[in-house]
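[step 3/7] inverse_fold.run input=structure_tokens len=130
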């Protein structure tokens, strides 16, 4: 693989990537999801084998080369999407309560009968009429 077409992060088996259908541009058709299933020896080719999940053409295997810019018939890494910022308070409260939980838990053997969790009995099976 030449350095100009070498991905910044080497591909690895089971990695999710985008595959760009041959004969289409990104404007014509969005990339389809694919998973790297095999790394081919570098001295033979600069390609990887992909399992492509195409809603139009169905699922299939394809051997494709890497391209940093989306190019037809090539694969690329999906663009980075920053995680959504959410209110951190509930998670912080939950993690603090989990940290305190071991101190407040009682072993089942030391619980009074009223404190023990109960499991409802199974519902009676309906009788079959013949």
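[step 3/7] decode complete -> sequence:
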């Amino acid at each position: 693989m030449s350095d100009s077409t070498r991905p910044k992060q080497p591909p690895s088996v089971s990695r999710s990537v985008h595959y760009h259908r041959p004969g289409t541009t990104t404007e014509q058709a969005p990339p389809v999801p694919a998973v790297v299933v095999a790394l081919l020896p570098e001295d033979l080719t600069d390609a990887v084998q992909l399992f492509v999940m195409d809603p139009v053409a169905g699922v299939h295997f394809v051997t494709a080369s890497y391209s940093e810019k989306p190019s037809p018939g090539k694969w690329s890494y999906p663009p980075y999407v920053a995680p959504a910022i959410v209110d951190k308070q509930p998670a912080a409260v939950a993690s603090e309560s989990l940290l305190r939980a071991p101190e407040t838990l009682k072993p089942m053997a030391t619980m009074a009968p009223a404190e023990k969790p109960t499991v409802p009995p199974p519902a009676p099976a309906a009788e079959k009429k013949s």
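[step 4/7] annotate
The beta strands are 16-19, 32-39, 47-54, 58-65, 75-76.
Residues 89-104 form the longest helix (16 residues).
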